[in-house]
Specification:
- About 15% of the residues lie in helices and about 35% in strands.
- With about 130 residues, the chain is of the alpha+beta class.
- The protein has one domain.
Length: about 130
């Protein structure tokens, strides 16, 4: 299985224990932040990964993480809230702040379409998942 060739993500590897039908890769931004980056395909071909889009978002990660934190009502350095970025097919992606104050230990999820925030989820419905 090929690994997405992302310019700004290092250490990209297949996640071996992904559920059937799900392809998942994990790496981290190659800058000093080292923010985790995941790419997930759900019964989709590799061509569904928009590498140029992911590279563009990763190149602007500092600004977009700040946008996500602001949308979620988090103050200060977004890195304080341990963000991780997850990309899906097309221009759908999200930031999960794993250490953000939330109803569950899962943190807060900020969903994007392109560079626009479309949803903020406190993941309360996912606690038992």
């Amino acid at each position: 299985m090929d690994t997405p060739a992302l310019r700004l993500v290092v250490g990209m590897r297949v996640v071996p224990d992904a559920p059937d039908g799900i392809l998942c890769w994990s790496g981290r931004l190659g800058d000093e932040s080292g923010v985790p980056v995941n790419v997930i395909l759900d019964d989709e071909p590799m061509t569904a990964i928009d590498v140029a889009f992911i590279d563009r978002i990763c190149a602007d990660a500092d600004r977009l993480l700040a946008v996500a934190a602001g949308a979620a009502g988090l103050t200060g350095d977004p890195g304080h809230w341990d963000p991780e970025m997850t990309f899906r097919s097309g221009e759908n992606w999200e930031v999960r702040f794993t250490e953000a104050p939330a109803p569950t230990e899962l943190g807060l999820l900020v969903v994007f379409a392109g560079d626009r925030v479309t949803e903020i989820d406190d993941l309360a419905d996912w606690d038992d998942a």
